[in-house]
Recover the amino acids of this structure.
């Protein structure tokens, strides 16, 4: 059976994951949102977006630590 990643995977750097998170935030096109939490785990990055005006949570995304793909 094949593994999830072919070959030897190269982990995404913290800075590269931050760029992906920033691009996602820009794509939402809502100036009232900002990144609140940005956490790195062994296989992914967790990002939460909050409303600037209220401080309430709005969106959470996971960024795959190897491919850079994200899911909301």
């Amino acid at each position: 059976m094949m593994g999830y990643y072919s070959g030897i995977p190269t982990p995404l750097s913290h800075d590269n994951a931050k760029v992906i998170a920033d691009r996602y935030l820009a794509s939402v096109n809502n100036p009232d949102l900002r990144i609140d939490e940005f956490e790195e785990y062994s296989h992914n990055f967790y990002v939460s977006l909050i409303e600037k005006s209220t401080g309430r949570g709005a969106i959470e995304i996971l960024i795959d630590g190897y491919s850079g793909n994200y899911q909301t």
